[in-house]
Design goal:
Largest sheet: 7 strands, mixed
Helix content: 25-40%
Number of helices: 11
Order of helices and strands: HEEHEHEHEEHEHEHEHEEHEEHH
Distance between the termini: 44 Å
Strand order of the largest sheet: 1-3-2-4-5-6-12
Oligomer: single chain
């Protein structure tokens, strides 16, 4: 049994939800169990939305797993262009009001909205991915040690480069993405101090499209490739697709992020250029939060995924990467040292 009371009139709730969501972004809902008649996990996407083949799609995978396992109704909402914190708050409040539980904001930009919505609905569990600033009994801060996976990406890049030049493309110049850059650069330098790391951020703010502009990512990668970079790592959400496209066109390596991008259907024609991906298991974090609510023991506070827990790491789907013994040995050795504490990975 679910701990939190549900709204009795499901038909009225659905109609009300549709009305509320018309003002705060699109939604997709699915009810796989009419007999249960209750509602479960709802997510609100970050910029780039569903279909980014990365961060947001990973969250959707977690939602789909919860829906299948728990047989309840779910909802996933898209962001809107130029939206305010008030718009985000309205989106989360509308979901909580209709009885969805938990309600998860996908991305640090939801912090003010999650804080406000959680205060209004103390009996609903809220989650936020990539933010650790909210201290509330009904909020789970779902965060990751991205720098650790990025360090391993740096090791792989340093072993794979032939030009002794690699690149990093960050979507937005913010502390979260600094973690990716810091770990990557440290991994490169610890592996081969002679390798040069070129770094570039696409924008100063998310509103400028740093996480949602493949054209910006492509241009940045092309600039680094012109400067002899033959491995380019992108931590840029949807913009990273442009980096991968540029790498494929120029026959150099790209390293993906968040999800195993070698396996992404939308990137299939470029997958031969994707050496590996620095992954973080957003799907698992979102699913685990839903399960904790279903079990009557909702997660709260900081919930961190790292190398030790297996929630960050490097994908090995590319057979060429997986069969390279030198790269595999170097990555595995670095992984063991990070987990043991012998290597301390920087976050900035």
């Amino acid at each position: 049994m679910r701990r939190v009371p549900r709204i009795a009139l499901a038909g009225a709730a659905t109609a009300s939800l549709a009305l509320a969501l018309s003002a705060c972004g699109g939604t997709s809902t699915s009810d796989s169990s009419e007999s249960k008649g209750d509602k479960g996990l709802a997510i609100a996407y970050d910029v780039g939305g569903k279909g980014d083949q990365s961060f947001n799609d990973a969250a959707f995978a977690g939602l789909e797993k919860a829906k299948k396992e728990f047989g309840y109704k779910t909802a996933d909402l898209e962001p809107t262009d130029g939206e305010t914190d008030a718009d985000k708050t309205q989106r989360l409040v509308s979901l909580a009001k209709q009885g969805y539980n938990p309600v998860v904001g996908i991305g640090y930009a939801y912090a003010p909205a999650v804080k406000e919505a959680a205060a209004k609905y103390p009996d609903t569990t809220f989650g936020i991915v990539d933010d650790s600033t909210i201290e509330a009994k009904n909020v789970a801060d779902l965060v990751f040690s991205e720098q650790e996976a990025s360090y391993l990406a740096g090791v792989a890049a340093a072993k794979a480069t032939k030009t002794h030049t690699v690149g990093f493309v960050g979507g937005v110049d913010i502390p979260l993405i600094h973690k990716f850059q810091a770990g990557f650069a440290q991994g490169v330098k610890d592996t081969d101090p002679k390798v040069k790391v070129l770094s570039q951020y696409l924008t100063q703010t998310a509103d400028e499209g740093g996480f949602s502009s493949p054209d910006k990512g492509k241009t940045a990668a092309e600039g680094q490739i012109e400067k002899k970079a033959d491995v380019v790592y992108a931590a840029a959400g949807l913009s990273g697709q442009g980096v991968i496209e540029a790498a494929a066109a120029n026959k150099v390596w790209a390293i993906g992020v968040d999800s195993d991008q070698y396996r992404q259907e939308a990137l299939a024609k470029y997958k031969g250029a994707i050496l590996t991906s620095a992954t973080k298991d957003v799907a698992k974090a979102v699913y685990n939060l839903a399960k904790s609510v279903e079990d009557g023991k909702p997660e709260s506070g900081i919930v961190r995924g790292d190398l030790k827990s297996g929630e960050v790491g490097l994908a090995d789907s590319n057979p060429q990467y997986n069969s390279d013994t030198a790269v595999q040995d170097a990555v595995e050795a670095a992984k063991e040292k990070i987990i043991s504490g012998e290597i301390k990975v920087k976050t900035s």
